[in-house]
Amino acid sequence: MSSGCSAPGPRGLLCAEDCEVTITCWRGRCAVKRARGLSADDLDPSCAVPLPPPAPAHDIVLGVDEHGVPFGLRLEDVWRHVGVLGSTGSGKTTTAAILVRELYVNRVPTIVLDWAGEYPLYLARLRVDYEVLTDKLLPAVSIVSEKLDVELVLDTLRHALSLSAHQVTALHMVLGLVVGLPVAAAQHMLRLDAEGGRRLSEALKVVERDNSIVSLLNLVKTVWELVVRADVIGGYSRSEAEVWAALARRLAMIAFSRYSWLFRVRGSGVHDLVSLAREKRVPVVVDLSSIPSPRVKRVYAALLLGNLFDYAVARGPLGLVVVVEEAHNVLEHAQALFEHLLAEARKYMLGLILVSSKPSALTASMIANLGTIIVHQLRAPPRTLPGLDLADAERLGVGEAYVVTGSAEPVKVALTP
Ligand SMILES: Nc1ncnc2c1ncn2[C@@H]1O[C@H](COP(=O)(O)OP(=O)(O)O)[C@@H](O)[C@H]1O
Ligand SMILES: [Mg+2]
Prior knowledge:
Strand content: 15-25%
Structural class: alpha/beta
Number of helices: 16
CATH class of the largest domain: Alpha Beta
Bound molecules: adenosine-5'-diphosphate, magnesium ion
Oligomer: single chain
Number of domains: 3
């Protein structure tokens, strides 16, 4: 055997052909190719010297680094959440689809909130099987949350429906009634007489029976009618009554939409959604593009995430990943909810992959809770991404990205579809 080893080459190739033994590392596992009947033990000592430290095992292979060495993430990195950021056309959705493929390979149930209905095509290109839920098959979401602080739900609805502070207070009372605030207490707060209390009770029973957003709207309308009636104890100012009228108009944006059936007062379709992802063992694409109204779509996506978190808290560690495509569309209108989810969801093994062409939409708290940030080309970079030379991100080509995990140095990676 001739001596003379080359330095580690692409993909961890350790020895030049003249060593007649090559060791190739792929996905953290090393294969020894034997030539002419030689075994690894026959390796020339001079070949053994330049052995590099073993490549870290990657469960999730993203592509190759600048030296051509495979680069990826560990599975536990996903529970600490991943941000995929970059300008339009830089390769974000392709990268997210690569992540979905790798999660599929690792048998991790994955749900994609597909803002524009792109994933079936992207996953098919990567030869990944999937289930798609669209139109009538979309899972219903619950407005009342079992585990989330009501403030987070109210904040989400406030942004989504552009509610004023007074309207939020009114909605707070309505949701309070739904989750058990005694009618007598609401009657007292609203300064209603006994007949008013009776009508409130009736409207509440309809909500309990119907569970629909229309019945919730009806409850708000009932309060509105009561406060403008003459027999209200103490009387109401015109502006107080207007709060209820305006809240009714805002709720009608969802209640009278073609997709009002998607919204329930209590009890979501999340259990079936998670079961589908687990049992089918393929990614489940929730096709949001079938909802035509951006407002309805935003509030639906935010509530679905909130409901998934509820489910994770109730059921213990979920071991589930949710990809949120065009995440800025949702998180800009549900900042408090996203900050809470990013800070808390990892405890329940609910990993989020946020894909966005608008990194400036992410707050400092959101960025601090992204364990891994994959930055593609950024034509207008924000200044808040930690540990990253933003000028370099401007020079990246399509399908290239800097990957920053924890406090490690950024690694330039060419993503492999
Ligand atoms: N890693 C990659 N390797 C090769 N081509 C890529 C890669 N990533 C993206 N592309 C190509 O670049 C184009 C834009 O990619 P896409 O993922 O849709 O970008 P974005 O989601 O950022 O708008 C597509 O035509 C896609 O095929
Ligand atoms: Mg895209």
